[in-house]
């Protein structure tokens, strides 16, 4: 083995040790010097089972998603019929999956044409005549209902993931569980109530016209509401900052525009000191609708309604082009930020309720760390002692390889930003076993060659050559198993798979390259006539 090859391998090992030290530094030293800021995020993150946090199972109301879908299509059908010149079309939802449409007799053909072209997922019932009008029931197809159920959970999953990402939780677990449930784990969360409010807020933003402020007879139900209206309440805060019910406003039930047109939402300073507003930007469709709404309702109040609460009801002074509006209210900076997050990341398609909640305290997490670390240390020390006694100098090399294997493994976890969990610790322990197996194979092959009377150099070269195929076979098979576990597993299983796969790569390198480097160096210097093994 020539000196140049030994030098290159030594430089590689030194570079990897230096790089590992850098990636481990943020986990050991805090704060870091400014010139090391580029590795500040390279930290080993602890999972929920180690550092504590919040475990939630959220249940999506998929039936509500279907009803909302029918409502939206009913409103769209009404608009399309008006565009086609049909006079006073009436469309409303009359069942969970049923909408009823009524048009004048001369609009029957236009109705059929619109239904055929734009609403193929509704099954239109026979036409009936009532008060000189054509009435038809539209029933949502079963395939479409199933698609909406599926889409509601998937959209909720993505929306919740976006909200949590902006909330700043490190390494959350967010995944589907069953037909309508979503599993959410938030490691290290310091404010679980705020997180639950942010996750579960439906954030259905609607724009409705205000009729007039009203008094108690309407709000208590003692007086009949005019047709097509409803009572909503303004958001109000008391002196202590607690939210409450403000003035009652009589609004039109008809939704003029919803939050699906929003492209961005940002917190801005308000006119009053320390006040906040939320500015929203709309897409082209929303800008056009908003301009039409404001242009045809000058001097009227427009209620901006979020989750059935009026956040603001400004009076329209003039037509507003450009697709920009603001939501005012007695917001704290935190409340305004949370509202902007839910508007920016999109509304949940249906209500989400908390079906299960568990809080893992930091004490339990500390116990888990202590027990996991103890098992790792005890197992590791026993292995190190056995290798040292049984293989002598070769055992010292194997022990060094095992220790550096752990260093490389943890450094790679830190560099990749992976999360360490209890199953992950189990993966590390299993990796140690695999690493020992590789060293045992090499040492036993060297022993066999020495028994045949070969020189130290020949025994070492033959030992590594004969052991390498078996080492690669076993480790590649385990690595592929880890890939499969990571691809199809969830949560803890993925944590186990990550540490297993990284550890296998590290163990092969330390067992085959690192120990061979020491042997080759000693042989090249003439310092090894026999092998202590």
What does this structure look like?
This protein has 3 domains: 3-52 and 361-524, Up-down Bundle (Multidrug efflux transporter AcrB transmembrane fold); 67-144, Gyrase A, domain 2; 201-358, Gyrase A, domain 2 (2-Layer Sandwich). Helices cover 52% and strands 22% of the residues. β14 and β15 form a beta hairpin. α3 (62-83) crosses α5 (142-167), α5 runs antiparallel to α6 and α10 packs across α13. It is of the alpha+beta class and 533 residues long.
Task: Indicate the CATH architecture of the largest domain.
Answer: Up-down Bundle
* CATH-defined topology of the largest domain: Multidrug efflux transporter AcrB transmembrane fold
- Derived from helix and strand composition plus strand pairing, the structural class reads alpha+beta
Strand content: 15-25%
Low-confidence stretches: none
Count the E strands. Answer: 20
Global Rg = 34 Å
- Mean pLDDT over all positions: 81
CATH homologous superfamily identity of the largest domain: Multidrug efflux transporter AcrB transmembrane domain
Overall geometry: elongated
N-to-C CA distance: 21 Å
Total separate domains: 3
Instruction: Please describe the biggest sheet, giving its number of strands, its sense, and whether it closes into a barrel.
Output: 5 strands, antiparallel
What percentage of residues falls in helices of 4 or more residues? 40-55%
CATH class of the largest domain: Mainly Alpha
